[in-house]
Amino acid sequence: MGPGLLESVYEYCLVKELKSRDIIAEHQVFVPLFYKEEKLSKDFRNDILVENAIIIEIKAAELLLPVHKAQIISYLKLTEKQLGFLINFNVPLLKQGFKRFVNNFEE
């Protein structure tokens, strides 16, 4: 699709591609938020959850900021998932837009 589109377009297309390969992928997955073991009335949403194990956060930004990295780290902590990808589609080559996070540490 190339750079320059909205994040929601890349999200939709990526989910479509994963499903076409028989990979279980859900988008905009609601995750309950707890504070001191109490469920809050506020939820957050993961952009994409793959095989109920991998969180993918989609961006279409000119530059990834520290807050974007903090976001995926927080999502991994809150969901207790081990692997996450921050993917920025606004890059000349898509492989330049991938950031991998494992157990709350960027690799």
Can you offer a commentary on this structure?
- By secondary structure, the protein is of the alpha+beta class.
- The chain has one domain (7-106): Lambda Exonuclease, Chain A, CATH 3.90.320.
- The chain is 26% helix and 40% strand.
- It is built from 2 helices and 6 strands, in the order αβββαβββ.
- It has helices at 7-20, 66-79; strands at residues 25-35, 38-50, 54-59, 83-88, 98-102, 105-106.
- Strands 1-2-3-4-5-6 form a 6-stranded mixed β-sheet.
- Strand 2 and strand 3 (54-59) form a beta hairpin.
- The two termini are 27 Å apart.
- The mean pLDDT is 90.
Set down the secondary structure blueprint.
Layout: H1 7-20, E1 25-35, E2 38-50, E3 54-59, H2 66-79, E4 83-88, E5 98-102, E6 105-106
Parallel strand pairs: 3-4
Antiparallel strand pairs: 1-2, 2-3, 4-5, 5-6
**Beta-strand residue percentage:** 35-45%
How much helix, percentage-wise, in residues? 25-40%
Order of H and E elements = HEEEHEEE
CATH topology grouping: Lambda Exonuclease, Chain A
Strand segment tally: 6
**Span between termini:** 27 Å
Reported CATH architecture: Alpha-Beta Complex
Instruction: Identify low-pLDDT runs.
Output: none
Secondary-structure-based class equals alpha+beta
Q: How many H/I helical runs?
A: 2
What's the mean pLDDT score?
A: 90
Structural Rg: 14 Å
Major sheet: size, sense and barrel closure?
A: 6 strands, mixed
Global geometry: globular
